[in-house]
Amino acid sequence: VGDSAAPGCPVSTHANLPTAVLSQALTDAIRGRRVRAGVFTTFSFDPGFYELHVLPLLFDQSFSQADKVRRIQLEDALRNVEALSVYYDRRALAQDAEPAQLDYDRIDVSRSNGCFHPKVVLLLVEESDEDGGVETSLLVSIQSANLTRAGWWENVECGHIEEICSTESSENRIPFRRDLMALLRQIEKSAVPEDAHPALDQIRRFLRKETETDTFTNASSKGRIRTRIFCGQDRQDFSEWLIDLGVARREWNLEIVSPYFDAAGAAPLQRLVEAIEPRETRVYLPRELDGKAAVTQEAFSAVEDWAHWADPPTTLLARGRDSGSEKLPPRRAHAKLYRFWNRDGRDLLIAGSVNLTSAAHGHWATGNLEAAFLVDVSAQKLPRRWFLSKLDNEPTEFVEAHSAESDASAP
C-alpha cells in the first residue's frame, strides 16, 4: 500500500481484500466533478499537510511541486468551492503541524465527554448532464485516517466510500441516511454555538430536499444487511447497535484490528463477544518497533479471557528497502476494522474510527463521537479463511502505561 488503504476493506491482499491508496480512492470517487461544498472531520489535524497534499485532490488540475506556487494555485481553485470546513479536536492539533495559510473554515471542537474522533469526508459534487442541467451527488467517506502525514502517507488505514445521488438521477432509498443526519447533528453540536456551518448546511439541505427520504423498515433484505453508519446514535453503544441490526448469533468468526485498547480490562470486547456470540475471536496485537507489545500486561491478560491475540500477515506492515538497500521499519497499523465472517459465505466489515476501547464503543453522550461504515461484502466472495494468525509466541515485554487515542497526545 503506497499511502493509506481505502475503500471498503482496506487491509491486505493476503485474503484478497480490496486495497487502494487513500488519495487515489478519493480522486477516483470525485471523477473530475466540481466540488461545491466539503466537510472534513478529524481527531488530529496538520493544516499545512492538509493544504498541500489533501486539498489538491478536490480539483481536476495539476499543481506545482513548489509549496509557495502550489498554495497560490490552490487559493485560486478554492474560489470555485462555495463552502469548505475542517472540524478537529482542539486538544489534538498535531504538535509539529505547519500553520494554515489558505481560506477555509477551521473549526476546533471540544466535547465534555470523550473526544471528537470521527474521520469523515463529505463532498457535494456536481457535473453538467446531457440536457444542460446539473447532476449533484454527495460522496460519503468514513475512514480511520487523521488529516496528518502519518494518516494519509505512512500508516495502514481503512475506510469505505459511498455516493448518494439526487432524486433526479436515482430514486433509490438510502439505508444510512438517518444515521448520516444524526452524525451531522452531533458534529455541529460539538462546536461552540457561535460557529457558522455553511458547508454542513449545504450538505444537510441536499439530503433533506434532493434525496429520497423514505427509509427501510428492516435492517436486512434477503439475508443481506444493508449499509449503515455507527456514530453512537439513539444512545446505543456499539454492541447494542449490532444487536439491533440483527448481527448477533450467526455463527460468526470475528477478527478485530485496533491499535488502541483500554489500559485495564477488556470491557468493550467482553460486551461484544457476549452480544454476538462468535465461534472464535482473534484480535490484532499492536507492537512497538522493538517488538514490545503496545498494550499493558493487564490489558493483554484481560483480552485473552475473551479472544486469541493474533498477528497480521507479514506483508501487511512491510515497507521494503530504501535507496541504500536498508530495510525500512514496518508501517504502523492505525486501521480500526471489525470483520464478521462464516463458512456460509457471509462477510461483514465495519471500518472507520472505532477502537476497541470503552470510550469508542460507548454512545455519544458517554464516550467519543465516532463514525464507522458497516458494509455487507458477502457478494465479493472473499476467501473463507482467517486474515489474522494466532500468535506463535506470547510477548514478554509490554508498555507500562498505554496511551488511549482519546488522549490529545495520541495520533
Q: Strands, helices and their partners?
A:
Layout: H1 22-30, E1 34-42, H2 47-54, H3 67-77, E2 83-89, E3 105-109, E4 120-128, E5 134-143, H4 149-154, E6 159-165, H5 177-190, H6 198-209, E7 220-221, E8 224-225, E9 228-230, H7 238-244, E10 253-257, H8 267-276, E11 280-284, H9 297-304, E12 308-311, H10 314-317, E13 337-341, E14 347-352, H11 358-361, E15 372-376, E16 389-390
Parallel strand pairs: 1-2, 2-3, 10-11, 11-12
Antiparallel strand pairs: 1-4, 4-5, 5-6, 7-8, 9-15, 10-13, 12-16, 13-14, 14-15
Helix pairs in contact: 7-8
Short recap of the structure:
The protein has 411 residues and is α+β, with helices and mostly antiparallel strands. Helix content is 23%, strand content 21%.
Low-confidence stretches: 1-15, 404-411
Characterize the largest beta sheet: strand count, sense, and whether it forms a barrel.
8 strands, mixed
The rounded Rg comes to 21 Å
Structural class: alpha+beta
- Give the helices and strands as they follow along the chain: HEHHEEEEHEHHEEEHEHEHEHEEHEE
**Helical amount:** 10-25%
SS summary, helix count: 11
Mean pLDDT, as a whole number? 90
- Overall number of strands: 16
Distance between the termini: 20 Å
The portion of residues forming beta strands comes to 15-25%
Shape: globular
